Amino acid sequence: MRGWWQEISGLVLPVACGGCGSPRTALCERCAAALLGVRARRVRPAPEPAGLPVVYAAAVYEDAVRAVLLAHKERGALGLAGVLGQALAGAVRAAAGAPRDGPLLLVPVPSARRAVRARGHDPARRIALAAAGELRRTGTDARVAAVLRQRRAVADQSGLSARQRLANLSGALEVSAGGDRLLEGGRVVLVDDLMTTGASLVEAARAVADVGRTAAGAVGGAPAHAIAGFAQRTAAAAVVASTPASFEINRN
């Protein structure tokens, strides 16, 4: 009910730019340019956690971009999902690389159940759906495979160090029953709205890789080859934004 009301009210009530607060527009040209005006780039947090896939981000998480993401996630500005999806689509293209056989499978990192209840929606999933639509409009076969779910409760990540976030999320995600079949035959790209320490993407990559290993091990013949092929398909991730320091990839 809350999500439905937020979408309807956004159509009939006065709006302000989600980035800078300018009146009578959901997103002004200047703030849209901050999201869409720069080519997606590879990002790496410092320290870079083991198991982190190659990650591309569309924008730096600061100023207008930060405000837009928070407006969508925390303040129910659901109309911003479209432009955030456009930004994510650019990062997905960069992460996926050259076209291959099969569709692009966008696998969103799920929010905690209590966060979804409090917000009335799952931000990463909503943005992923918009990104898949944008990719299809521009000629790329893309779909959302929302196969990840939390199998145990986790603590609030805010205030935790990078190491504490990894420990907090370790083993927290799994691929839902039957989800492995939805991942077959495509190029998997993990997607999220934001990367800070990379802990969420590490755990998502582990969960997807684990189901691939299980599936490969259940098939006779050449399980090692199957495992290698599955790992190759899941070694990429894309986010709308990442912290400024993570764009500085040429470190000594």
Characterize the structure shown:
The protein is of the alpha/beta class and 252 residues long. It has one domain (2-247). Helices cover 44% and strands 16% of the residues. The chain contains ten helices and eight strands. The chain has helices at 2-12, 29-36, 63-74, 81-96, 113-119, 123-137, 162-169, 179-182, 199-217, 223-233, and strands spanning 41-43, 54-60, 104-108, 142-144, 148-150, 173-175, 187-195, 236-242. The strands form two sheets. A six-stranded mixed beta sheet has the order 1-2-8-7-3-4, sandwiched between helices. Strands 5-6 form a two-stranded antiparallel ribbon. The chain is globular, with a radius of gyration of 18 Å. It starts with a helix and ends in a 10-residue tail after the last strand. Residues 1-13 and 217-229 have low confidence and may be disordered. This is ComF family protein. It comes from Streptomyces melanogenes. Belongs to the ComF/GntX family.
Total strand count, please? 8
> Which segments are poorly predicted (pLDDT under 50) over 5 or more consecutive residues?
1-13, 217-229
What portion of residues is helical?
40-55%
Give the H and E element order.
Answer: HHEEHHEHHEEHEHEHHE
Percentage beta strand: 15-25%
Strand order of the largest sheet: 1-2-8-7-3-4
Number of domains: 1
Notable traits:
44% helix; six-stranded mixed beta sheet; two-stranded antiparallel ribbon; alpha/beta; disordered N terminus; ComF family protein; 252 residues
